Amino acid sequence: MFKRRDLLKLAAGSAAVATTAPGGIRLAQAQTAPASNGTDAARPADPAAFDPAAVVEFARALSKRPYKAPSSNLVDPFASLTYDLYVGIKNKPESLIWPTDNVGFALEPLHRGFIFSAPMEISIVENGVSRKLVYSPEQYDFGRLAVPPNLGDIGYSGFRVLLPRDGGFSEVAIFQGASFFRARARGQNFGTVARGLSIRTADPRGEEFPAFRSVWIEKPTISGNALIIHAILDSESVTGAYRFTLRPGDATIIDTECTLFARTAVDNVGIATMAGTCVFGPLDRRRDDIRPAVHEVSGLQILNGNDEWLWRPVSNRETLQVSAFIDTNPRGFGFLQRERDFERFQDDNQHWELRPSLWIVPIGEWGPGDVVLVEIPSESEVNDNMVAYWRPKQGLAAGSETNFAYRQFWCWTPPDRPPLAFVAGSRSGRPPGAQSGARRRRFLVDFSGDIFADPQRSAEITPSLNASPGAISSVRTFLNRERKSLRVLFDMDAGSETLSELRLVLEAQGKPISETWLYRWTP
Questions:
Q1: What is the SS3 assignment for 116-154?
Q2: For 24, left (φ over 0), alpha (ψ -120 to 50), or beta?
Q3: What values do phi and psi take at 23, rounded to 5?
Q4: What is the DSSP letter of 378?
Q5: Any bridge partners for residue 199, and if so which?
Q6: pLDDT per residue over 409-441, tens digit each?
Q7: What is d(CA 126, CA 106) in angstroms, rounded to the nearest whole number?
Q8: pLDDT class for 152, splitting at 50, 70, 90?
Q9: Can you give the pTM of this predicted structure?
């Protein structure tokens, strides 16, 4: 399902003299005109010997030139496609890249149109030589569309990464639209989406959407089980050189390395940005919906630089909410889908329980900053209304060069898990006797862990709970040794306040035995 809110519309294509390569894909022989994506003046002739270091040099040189917005031109009928017409454009089987080469992967170039009007120049690197993919309408079945003759090279909007499965191919990742990409583990549906970079998300000054303009994809080997993608990112404020190393498996791992070059000072930049959907769950305001819950994100997990495990359930709010979790050298963070039971959702179409968790492991020291959570009100399940990212405290200074590296786990369960009791569920509702609209709420938080089965250790457990601002009352605990769970029930009265930060952790002998549950209450 395409997510409409976050996708940036760029546009344009490029022209090249081409020859036909095996499999119906045309590879450029020589570049005869500048591409209209605004970046090619610094690119070497095509084909050419490929050096990954040259991608960094290209991004550096690009940052020293004024930003050139890409052309928005796209010929009809592609300029005005509806969703149904766009998804009706199908790649012919022979248009795939490497389908019979026994390299463990195949690529599917994606057509431009609908909200995907932005061009992405795609080059294939083989035996150290880079050649650009040249668009041909012969690659596609257009269904009901009447395609003009002599269409020429209009380029692509992105690509799918495919794995051989059961005599065919299965998608494992998609790179398409601005700097958006997504992946999934074996047996999952697509869900949470990542971004190469975010700038001024939820900022009154307006968000800026960097875009991957060019990619170079190295032909893999069957023994390597890895696909390496190099990319150039460009925007008004920043350029960047990226290297993605994708490894599929029970969890799909994407190692990301980037060097960012700031054209201008950027004080609100997002590293390892991710976005997902949460329409409603047990903590949200009630919905008139036949399903008990609709979300692909249960919450934000953080392992901070002090080795404290934090769990922050997400919620679809009445108003925009931005939360910042101050840290130095974070050890991990990500959007998790903890609900894996179909009964929690009862949705035979979307199967929210099959959506991936996305866990980020920073590589190296990231210094001071904060993990930012943005909760955007939404009534539509096609919107990615939950956003999270790392925001470095110092931002990006004009003319600076900054490196980041991190590992993404697209998974069922992150490899790093709290060695503590974890939050299995959270609920909220109006306490008995409270009037409708009163700023008094009852919360229920369920913890799960082996410690609760131990009679001696569990007898020492007490909840440490506070609200700021607000008052906590009626705190009760319910231990179930058979289910290895402990439930904490409490009431919170915000008085005249419109916001209250709640914090709950289970302790024994003054030490935490659970992850820390955090929640922001708003009316």
A1: ECCCEEEEEEECCEEEEEECCHHHEECCCCCCCCCCCCC
A2: left
A3: 90, 5
A4: -
A5: 208, 269
A6: 999 999 988 999 999 999 999 998 877 777 899
A7: 14
A8: confident
A9: 0.90
